[in-house]
Design goal:
The chain is an all-alpha fold. It is 49% helix and 2% strand. The chain has 3 domains: 12-48; 65-212, Cytochrome Bc1 Complex, Chain D, domain 2 (Orthogonal Bundle); 227-311, no CATH class. It has helices at 8-47, 92-105, 107-110, 143-152, 167-179, 190-202, 213-225, 240-248, 252-261, 268-278, 293-304, 307-311, and strands at 77-79, 205-207. It has a two-stranded antiparallel sheet with strand order 1-2. It starts with 7 loop residues before the first helix and ends with a helix.
């Protein structure tokens, strides 16, 4: 321990050291404060997704065709007719719109440049169409052919129907698809083009209500689960009507759901035809196909009732 006495000069050196440390600490604090106020918000703005422009098209998954089944729920609405002059001939605006729609709905299978090599292509058999080549277009590559394929899909392939897309947007996709192939697409059929133009001109477009497939399945399962199974007469009941019901119904829970879902419940002929055609998957025995009209009348009356009974208070 030093015996040196503190002097004014010693106090000055200590005060100066404290001031230097305070200034250094203040500088660091100010630097962090400025970083938090200026740099961090700028970085967050860079990461924030850009707002999507408004559109009349139903909500669709932006990552491609494979998610169309899980498109967000949207309320249906009616749109006015389309002026054919605005969509039948390609123009920069239509092609730009088609490019956006192609990336959203088609590129996951057909690839960014339409060569049939999208990320999902390897999971599909047959593989997606290569739009850049003229070979093997089973449904044709004319304007009307491509429009029909987009609208109705292609049976036996992974190409789903995109009829939920507005007609004008479907035509924008048609022009984009054709622009991907530099080959000669040949002359169009004037009558087919005229018919397509008339369809745009003469009627509007209805966008139906849409819900994700998973939600629809959940609702269906819930509705089916609430239907109690049919209570068949016990084996000791030897009445002809009881034996007929036990003969007709093979799976009471399934048959109960079939009975609950029928439309023309008082049209015995229609009900009998539908139940016989759906057996045994619908819960009824395949042997019901051999029943006569009187036996069907008995079964339908026992399971559904009659108009007269429904009118009774």
């Amino acid at each position: 321990m030093s015996d040196e006495k503190e002097t004014p000069s010693t106090w000055g050196r200590e005060a100066k050291g404290l001031a230097n440390r305070f200034a250094l600490g203040s500088g660091v604090a100010v630097t962090f404060l400025l970083f938090g106020l200026i740099v961090v918000p700028a970085l967050l703005r860079e990461r924030r997704p850009l707002p999507r422009p408004p559109s009349d098209q139903p909500a669709a998954a932006s990552v491609g065709w494979l998610d169309q089944a899980e498109t967000p729920a949207s309320k249906g609405r009616d749109l006015p007719p389309v002026d054919p002059a605005t969509v039948m001939t390609p123009n920069p605006k239509l092609l730009a719109r088609g490019d956006v729609l192609f990336k959203q709905n088609c590129s996951s299978c057909h690839g960014e440049s339409g060569q049939g090599n999208g990320p999902a292509a390897g999971t599909l058999n047959p593989r997606p169409r290569n739009f850049t080549q003229s070979a093997d277009w089973k449904r044709g590559f004319h304007v009307t052919d491509i429009y029909a394929t987009i609208t109705n899909g292609s049976k036996g392939t992974g190409m789903a129907a995109f009829d939920f897309i507005m007609p004008a947007d479907r035509m924008a996709l048609v022009h984009t698809v054709r622009s991907l192939g530099g080959f000669d697409h040949g002359a169009e059929d004037p009558k087919a083009l005229a018919a397509l133009a008339d369809s745009f001109r003469s009627k509007g477009f209805h966008i139906p209500n849409r819900i994700p497939v998973s939600l629809a399945i959940t609702k269906m399962v819930k509705e089916q689960a609430t239907v109690p199974p049919l209570q068949l007469p016990p084996a000791k009941d030897k009445l002809a009507s009881a034996e007929l019901l036990r003969f007709a119904v093979a799976d009471p829970p399934r048959a109960a759901r079939t009975v609950a879902a029928i439309a023309n419940r008082y049209d015995v002929t229609a009900v009998a035809r539908a139940w016989a055609a759906g057996a045994p998957d619908n819960g009824f025995s395949p042997a019901v196909a051999g029943l006569n009209a009187a036996e069907w009348d008995e079964i339908v009356r026992a399971l559904v009732g009659s108009k007269e009974e429904a009118k009774q208070p």
